[in-house]
Amino acid sequence: MSQKPFVVSVRALVVDGEGRCLIIRRSDDSRWNPGKWDLPGGKPDPGEQIGEALLREAREETGLDIELTRSAGCVEWELDTVVVVCVFLEARVLGGALRTSDEHSAHRWIAPDGLCTAGLCEEFLPVLRSYGARA
Questions:
Q1: What number of other Cβ atoms are within 10 A of residue 96's Cβ?
Q2: d(CA 71, CA 82)
Q3: Residue 112, domain member (yes or no)
Q4: Alpha carbons 127 and 69: distance in angstroms, whole number
Q5: Is 93 in a helix, a strand, or coil?
Q6: SS3 81
Q7: Do residues 65 and 95 lie in contact, with contact meaning Cβ atoms separated by under 8 Å?
Q8: pLDDT at 129 over 70
Q9: Closest CA to 128 of 68, 66, 73
Q10: How far is residue 53's CA from residue 26's CA, in Å, rounded to a whole number?
């Protein structure tokens, strides 16, 4: 068992009316996985529930208002100083206008079975494989 502290991260599998998932490309100057494709999300602020954090992060990163619909999985990985526990929740779009934030350089919609080959962060692959197989 790791002696490192655990931190929580949340990611949204935002699904459109055609069943496609939204992915966003991290900017080339991003501190973590620059240039990699990602899912909307981030870390909760102190005292913030994970669902609230994900709604906020999705709005900040994509301009979309979403509704969380179900759990899609969880994965963990170690960094130098912490163990990240990442919770994935499926969501649907309620409104807003899709845009790219300052932290990202592009966005696109892809079929769930293409998530594993879209260049997303390697740490996400166990959940994405399972999600793509059941979507």
A1: 13
A2: 24
A3: yes
A4: 16
A5: strand
A6: coil
A7: yes
A8: yes
A9: 73
A10: 19
Domain count, the chain: 1
Calpha distance 37→105 (Å, rounded): 10
List pLDDT tens digits, range 4-56: 999 999 999 999 999 999 999 999 888 878 889 999 999 999 999 999 999 99
30 against 63, higher pLDDT: 63
CA atoms within 13 A of residue 61's CA, in its CB half-sphere? 27
* CATH number of the domain that residue 76 is part of: 3.90.79.10
Contacts of 30 (CB under 8 A, 6+ apart): 103
Domain assignment of residue 123, yes or no = yes
Which domain range does residue 109 map to? 6-134
Give the rounded percent of residues in the chain with a pLDDT score beyond 90: 82
pLDDT at position 125: 93
